[in-house]
């Protein structure tokens, strides 16, 4: 009864000061959060504990209630995510930095376990909402109307153009995923490629795809940590991996890239960043939810600290490109694919994990669309190199 009274007061306050097109239903009662003929979102309380989470409507609390089945929600997915953010903005202010991210120890064992938790759900799970090449990173839409599959190929080609990959080069891809970039590089150029990953399922599938393409003589996949790698490479790419390194570990990460580059080598880092100059997490508790359910130990640096860490690691930044809008569109298309295959995905991974990924993908699309987080491609070279072989303009990237 106390929880119900408090919810009645909260709904009354929202109707008067910040109306929302949402309705709450429990135990045969309905409360509207705004004066609308038809709500866009209806929340059904399945267990009384769900009221407690809604009374403190941070994004992690709302997500927790949904994931645990305490609350079911009706409405279009985009409307649901918009409503969640609107409720969270009207809630109490609190520190944005999550404790778990600060305490996570980025050693080899912890990083391997975190990677395997996220990427080893199953290859078939990812295949149901990614493109056919299974590229799990921001696509590139130069015209804005490309299909997801076409945009992912354009992203790979954009990266290979930026690093000026040429016949005879040795290419390293750190965090190679299911091998799409390496296979594309080997097909387009006469290069020797090495890809490394900590995900057992990615390793198995990437190896299978390399063999299926008949590229075993030019592409090798290894299950290993980037810190254990030695040798020299003409070109290094790292796409969607440095988010797992941890902010404190970034100078060492970039130093390892510097040590692995030839003196005239080029490297490209493609990764998600925070828009907070204080390097805080996504606001309103979103970081807490992601750390608990999706990306254990993930941390997002600001672009400024990323560039600083590169310099500390002995790399000179040559080019920086913001792809935030591209990732918003990528995630929107992933989310649409996920919804289209919801029945099969539910059967494969179970209701709770299905709900986690459903709101994660749609929530991330919202975050990139609204400049809550961002993403950058950064081209760099060993610091102090005399750049007489480098192009004088960026035109070569779009040739």
Automatic annotation (TrEMBL):
Methyltransferase found in the keyword field: yes
GO MF annotation terms: cyclopropane-fatty-acyl-phospholipid synthase activity
Cross-referenced Gene3D superfamilies: Vaccinia Virus protein VP39
Keywords attached to this entry: Lipid metabolism, Methyltransferase, S-adenosyl-L-methionine, Transferase
Single biological process term from Gene Ontology: lipid biosynthetic process
Domain of life: Bacteria
InterPro entries according to UniProt: CFA/CMAS, CMAS, DUF7884, SAM-dependent_MTases_sf
Enzyme class label: transferase
Methyltransferase found in the keyword field: yes
Active-site residues, record numbering mapped to chain: 364
EC number, UniProt record: 2.1.1.79
Pfam families per the UniProt record, alphabetical: CMAS, DUF7884
Domain DUF7884, residue spans: 26-86
SUPFAM superfamilies hit by this protein: S-adenosyl-L-methionine-dependent methyltransferases (SSF53335)
Membership in a protein family: Belongs to the CFA/CMAS family.
PANTHER family for the chain: CYCLOPROPANE-FATTY-ACYL-PHOSPHOLIPID SYNTHASE (PTHR43667)
Designated name of the protein: Cyclopropane-fatty-acyl-phospholipid synthase
């Amino acid at each position: 009864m106390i929880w119900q009274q408090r919810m009645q007061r909260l709904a009354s306050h929202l109707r008067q000061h910040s109306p929302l097109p949402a309705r709450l239903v429990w135990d045969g009662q309905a409360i509207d959060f705004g004066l609308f003929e038809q709500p866009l979102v209806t929340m059904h309380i399945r267990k009384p504990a769900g009221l407690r989470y809604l009374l403190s409507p941070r994004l992690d609390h709302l997500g927790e209630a949904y994931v645990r089945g305490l609350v079911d929600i009706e409405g279009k997915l985009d409307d649901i995510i918009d409503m969640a953010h609107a409720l969270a903005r009207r809630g109490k202010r609190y520190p944005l930095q999550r404790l778990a991210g600060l305490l996570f120890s980025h050693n080899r064992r912890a990083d391997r376990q975190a990677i395997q938790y996220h990427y080893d759900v199953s290859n078939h799970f990812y295949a149901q909402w990614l493109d056919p090449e299974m590229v799990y990173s921001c696509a590139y839409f130069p015209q804005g109307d490309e299909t997801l599959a076409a945009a992912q190929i354009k992203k790979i080609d954009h990266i290979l153009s930026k690093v000026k990959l040429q016949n005879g080069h040795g290419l390293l891809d750190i965090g190679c995923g299911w091998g799409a970039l390496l296979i594309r590089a080997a097909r387009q150029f006469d290069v020797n490629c090495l890809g490394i990953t900590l995900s057992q399922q990615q390793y198995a599938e990437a190896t299978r795809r390399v063999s299926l393409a008949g590229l075993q003589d030019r592409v090798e996949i290894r299950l290993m940590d980037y810190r254990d790698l030695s040798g020299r490479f003409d070109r290094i790419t790292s796409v969607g991996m440095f988010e797992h390194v941890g902010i404190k570990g970034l100078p060492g990460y970039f130093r390892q890239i510097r040590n692995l580059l030839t003196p005239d080598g080029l490297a490209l880092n493609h990764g998600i960043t925070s828009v907070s100059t204080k390097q805080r997490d996504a606001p309103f508790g979103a970081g807490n939810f992601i750390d608990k359910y999706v990306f254990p130990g993930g941390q997002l640096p600001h672009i400024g600290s990323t560039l600083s860490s590169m310099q500390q690691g002995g790399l000179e930044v040559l080019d920086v490109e913001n792809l935030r809008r591209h990732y918003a569109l990528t995630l929107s298309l992933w989310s649409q694919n996920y919804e289209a295959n919801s029945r099969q995905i539910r059967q494969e991974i179970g209701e709770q994990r299905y709900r986690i990924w459903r709101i994660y993908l749609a929530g991330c699309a919202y975050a990139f669309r609204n400049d809550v987080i961002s993403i950058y491609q950064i081209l760099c070279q060993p610091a102090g190199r005399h750049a007489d072989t480098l192009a004088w303009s960026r035109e070569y990237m779009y040739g």
